[in-house]
Amino acid sequence: MTEYKKLLKNTNFLYLWISQILSQLTIQILNFLLIIKVFRETGSAISIALLWIIYGLPSILIGPFASASVDMFDRKKMLQISNFLQALVIFFYALFQGLNLFLLYGAIFAYSFLNQFYVPSEVASLPSLVKRNYLSFATSLFFITQQISLIVGIGIAGPLSHLLGFKNALFLCSFFVFIAYLSVSFLPNMKTKEIKLNFENALAKYFQQIIQGYKYIKENKLVIYPFLLLLGMQVSLSIIIVNIPLIAEDIYLLSVEKASYYIILPSGVGAVIGAFSVPRLLRRGVRKRKMIEKFLLIITLAFFLITFLLSELSMSYRVIVGAILVFFFGLSLTAIIITVNTFLQETTPKDLRGRVFGNYGFVLTLATILPIILSATLTEIFGIKLLIFTFDLIYFTTLIFIKRGNFSLMNSKLEILTK
Question: What subcellular locations does the record give (predicted)?
């Protein structure tokens, strides 16, 4: 904890962290605002899945090239230009959003396109702003901020839309990104030493780092299972977010607008509590494997009750019980993500952490697209309850897998780490 306090005394790091917080919150708020709008217009899970896929396309199409370009230009300018143009994209979409639904898909594609330059510039700026012995703590803090922003951002999207209206909520998002632009403007210039590299060499270096990270994960059984667990939890969360409108209407029997109050907000509160409480438990020496098992069990029970009990209750009980269940889901999911992330940070050598975590977003996008398409199709044909029950079975199977000792290599290491 002392290291984090010292890290936060670094003014340049704070400027970058403020930009990250605002950028992450904005994209999560924006995503859910657009999900609500698409569902209102089409009522289709496949249309929502299409929105998510379009957001992910730039990561696949130009992500590697954008990441390579980070090694060729001043990173401060890359951050500034990306933030400023993103603010403009949201602002102009807010002005003309009533003209055509397809304009929505174009806006989210443009925002994501610019994000392919912002995110790698942000990650690559850390070594220039933070001393080497604090770099792992900065990386960890950025990763945790990303996870918390995901739940908090979509948690406040509905209330913002309800209180301010869709258009004004978009203007607020544009304002957030503009503040992020101002924040990075206070950073020093960060011209890379490799600025004379040609584009081909920079691109080759990017893919070489991906391959090195992939080889390390693949060949290290101590890391591969926790990494897959982390990836799986994130993929499942993305699928659940895409299907929130259907969960609200078909299981909670609520309007989409009320989903933020009774579904997302309680889960966001649980996530925040988990984010603050889990690190304390870890510092007290609670074994990570035991924590993962207990929180997986909570998620399994919560999903089982959501699937088979919730819609049978009266409205008042349904709202109360449903809010409690998603509260524990948010708390448990965040607890698992932080616990697994902490383990990976502790076991991955410092010189490989950037390769393992730096390309996590790219890997997550690739891993998410096909499951989202399949889940949307499954939901359209068989309904949302089958999808939730399928996740319940997956979580339960994962729990059994861990309890039977298939994480045996991880267990022995965890015992060392928690002494």
Answer: Cell membrane
